[in-house]
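Step 1: inspect the first sequence and its tokens.
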Amino acid sequence: PFILNAQNLVPNYSFEDTIPRVSPFLYLPSDWTAPTGEGFEYYTSYNNFTQQHLQFSTPSNLAGYQQPKSGEAYIGINLDDFFSKPRRLRREYVQVKLNRKLIFDSTYCMQLFISLGDSANFASRGQLGVYFSTNSVGSNNVSNLPYTPQIIVSPNTFINDKVNWVEFNMQYKAMGGEEYITLGNFYDTAIIDTQFVVGGGKQYWHLNTYYYIDDVWLSHCDSLPDSLIGIAESHLKNQVSVYPNPFQNEFVIETNSKKELSFRLFDSFGRASTPLSMTKTEIGYRVMVGDIPKGIYLLHIDDGKEQVSFKIIKN
């Protein structure tokens, strides 16, 4: 079943509605704001007017390469950096006013999707918080906001997936009257639980923890079919898996689709790769990639009716 948008208390939950802010247009998401002087990054395919704007486009942008979880857009925030000397508590936050106030003693379900930016060299756990408040909060500086978030996303597990959107489901029991949510790192310390992740960028500003965020959902738990399953996934995508990922010289496309499939491989700049060497197997296909350079690629699969894409990485 589909979830009606009206059930979601978060306006513009997948960052699709846009507002042109500068000429010749740099789009920003409507309803969402940056509560501190540090700001945040908005990535949308509409940011394509100049080479500089392409840094804030999708799927390729300044932080890496990622298809939106849904629609055309997502945001990115820096939770911590390791390049400032001495260390500075640089924090990026996003804030939104809910469609209506929360009701006292009601339990709400929250869902969001996160992917670690390809350029980031560190992953974190217990770092991303969600703060519910009756009024908007903010500061003119770039350090942490002095509030205690009621929800901590992934308190025990490092969010280190650069390929997939990782789904997180949480619950919140309202105090009553909350009308704003703010997402970010609220810790007032530079000692953060992080994990080094191979394959990050080589620039000094890539020594950070940086996440893409998409599809932020908040609503009454008892109004959600299939426990916050989200927008229905592609039927074809549910029939296909690609592994290992990352890979070296070959990977496997496993599928139970009865349709004839076609495949195309593109690099992170959208350029078609050399023709794939494929061997049919009992479970799908064995793909040899030859001597293509190391990096991020997008595998397009088409069954004549649906198209799906998988981000894969060659080490």
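Step 2: inspect the second sequence and its tokens, then contrast the two.
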Amino acid sequence: ALNRPMWEGDWVHLGVAPKRDGLNACVRRSLVAVDRPSRVRADQKYWFDFIEQAYNVGEQAYYKIARESLPARYQEQALVNFFAAHSSEVSKRYGKKIQLEMLKPYTGTHNSGYTECQEFFGAITLDSAEPLGNQIVTMLDVAIRGIGDHWSDVILPDLDYLVIENTLGKFG
């Protein structure tokens, strides 16, 4: 939520950061401030369904690269491909050309650690040629934003930011 009162219908982002042995984990979810689920608008439900599908694509790709010791970039590429594959559908919804993969944050999977400020270290990007390590903790952080590179660059006018984030561990 922004630094202002929340109103019915606002997008709100909640997070919990449990610690174990001094290391932070994270669970984040977006929601809409309504008193019952039936009050979530159809356009909002569209984006919830979209981000849940994207998360599932990222999670399944993560399991595949972990099991098969594939280059980590394959997992990020699966997310980029998912977003890109929905660009024409979303462009039709808004009546303008939208490159949906450009509204995805820099990566869908990043490092975990003592604080979130370490997330850029160990992020899976399209340049990640090596497989995952044997014992690592990462954050699957799948999100979409409604603005471009500047606050005034509104691309999806009915969406601020939507996220599903969970901690994943690979041991062996």
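Step 3: confirm your contrast with the notes below.
The two ends are 38 Å apart (CA to CA). The mean pLDDT is 90.
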